[in-house]
Amino acid sequence: MRVALDYTAALTQQAGIGRYVRELAQALAPLFEPEERLVLWHGRLPKRCAGPRPGGAAVQDVELPLSPEWVTRLWQRLRAPLPLEWFTGPLGLSHGPDFVVPPSRAPSVVTIHDLSFLVVPQYAHPRLRAYLSAAVPRSLQRVSAVIAVSEQVRQEVIEHYRLPPERVVAIPHGVTTGLAAPPVDQSRRTLDRLGIREPYFLMVGTVEPRKNHMTALEAFSLLAPRYPGLALVIAGRPGWLSDPVMQAIRAAGARLPVRYVGPVADGDLPALYARSVALIYPSWYEGFGLPVLEAMACGTAVITSVGGAPAQVAGEAALVVPPGRPEALAEAMERVIDDSALRQRLVQEGQRRVPSFSWERAARQHLELYRRVARG
C-alpha cells in the first residue's frame, strides 16, 4: 500500500497544522511494513521552505510542478478533476491533513482540526471562512473517513454535516517526544536572553481575537496591584485582526508588567512553560489546544476555558473558567499563586495525563484507519 500525505503545511507552517503533519509523518514512517510506502507530496516551494522530512526506506518525496497556491486553486477552487495519482503514481490511500483532499482514484481520509469557521465565524478570516465553508463539504463527500483532533470536533462534525458517527474518529494530537522542563540553570539563561523576569503567568498562541487575550489582560489588571513584581508574558505571532489586540497589549504594558515576546522558537518554549506560575489559555474556541498539553509536559499548571477541547485535554489537570469573565480568571490565577498545594496537584495530574498523548499512539491509530479504509 502506498499512502499519500499532503506535506505542504509541514514545510510552510511552524506551528499548528504544520507541526501536526511533521510529527505525524515522523511517527508514521517507522511503523510502515516493508511493502508499504509513505508518499509525502507538496507543491513546489522555495529552498528556504525545504524543512525536515522523516527518513527511512518507507518514505518517498514527491514535489508537484505547481506552487501550493496553484495546487489549491487547481483542485479546490477550479475543482479540476485531475487525480493526485497523475503526479504520485498509483496509491492505496490519500490523506488530506489540512481540511481538504485532492481528487484521487484511491480511498481518502481527511483531518478536520476545528469548525471555527462555522461555530464562531466572527473569529475566522472572511476569505478563509468562505473557502472552508465551500471546500470542506466537498471533501467530506469524497472521503471514506474523517479524523477529528478531539472528541469535541468529532461531535461538531457529526452534528453540522450530519455524518454517520462511525465515519468520524477522534485521534488526539501527541506531545513532542522528550518535551519536558529543562534544567533550572538552562531555563533561567533562556529567560535572561528573552528579557523575562519571574514570577509570571504565560499565554502562548497566535495573537488574534479567538484566543481571548482581552480577557487575560483584564484579569491581569485586576490581579497585578495585589502582587508587585508579577508579570504576564505573551508569546505568539500576530494573526488575523491582531491590531486591536496588540494595541491593548501595548497599552497594558505601559502601566503594568505585561511583556510581549513575539513568536518563540520551539527550543525556548519549554523554559517559558516550566518557569511560569501557570499557563493561561482562555480561548473562546479551540479544536484541541496543544499549548495545554505542552504546558502539562513541562510541569506547569494550567488555567483554561470551561467546556471546550482544551479542558477535555487537561481533564483534572486544569482550573477551568468561563472565557468571558475576567474576574473569574483573576480569581483562578490568584488561587494558583496562593495555594502551592493546589498548584502542585495540577502539575502532578498533568504529568500523569501526558503519557496518554503520544505521537506514536496517534500514528498507530492513523495507520490502523488507513489500512481499514484501504481494505474497503
Automatic annotation (TrEMBL):
Organism placement in taxonomy: Bacteria, Pseudomonadati, Thermomicrobiota, Thermomicrobia, Thermomicrobiales
Keyword terms, alphabetized: Transferase
Glycosyl transferase family domain ranges (all copies): 198-352
Positions of the Glycosyltransferase subfamily 4-like N-terminal domain: 16-177
Protein name: Glycosyltransferase family 4 protein
SUPFAM superfamilies recorded: UDP-Glycosyltransferase/glycogen phosphorylase
GO molecular function, one term: glycosyltransferase activity
The keyword Transferase is assigned to this record: yes
Transmembrane segment boundaries: none
UniProt xrefs under InterPro entries: Glyco_trans_1, Glyco_trans_4-like_N
Pfam families: Glyco_transf_4 (PF13439), Glycos_transf_1 (PF00534)
Gene Ontology BP terms: lipopolysaccharide biosynthetic process
